[in-house]
Amino acid sequence: MTALSELADKMNTTQELWLTTQRPGNGVATFPLWFIHDGERLYVLSAESSSEVWDVKSNPSVEVAIGDVDSTDRLAMTADIMDDPNWVPMMLGMLEKKYGDGDAERMARTAEAAKGGHVIIKLKPR
What we know:
This protein has four helices and seven strands. By secondary structure, the chain is of the alpha+beta class. The protein has a single domain (4-125), classed as Roll (Pnp Oxidase, Chain A). A hairpin with a 7-residue loop joins strand 5 (61-66) and strand 6.
């Protein structure tokens, strides 16, 4: 596995991370997600009712691939749901700044899909 600090440059130019969660019944699921990193942790914004949130609540041990689902740049991480609603507007602003106008339509679809509300998933290396 790769260390988060080794991927700082790649995270600045990569659009998505691929979050692999453990499903109930020993299956796995992988989700492409936009992300923000602060050098020590990764953060993703997700719909509160999404499959990845339910999976993380059931088992916080996840794996993250940076840039491509088949990337060898993989990280073993622990996920934590941050459901404080004060974080969500700040996260939305950071995502808009990172992804810009080029992804405005996708941002709108993401917001529409999250009618039940957003949560932030904080990912930290295990």
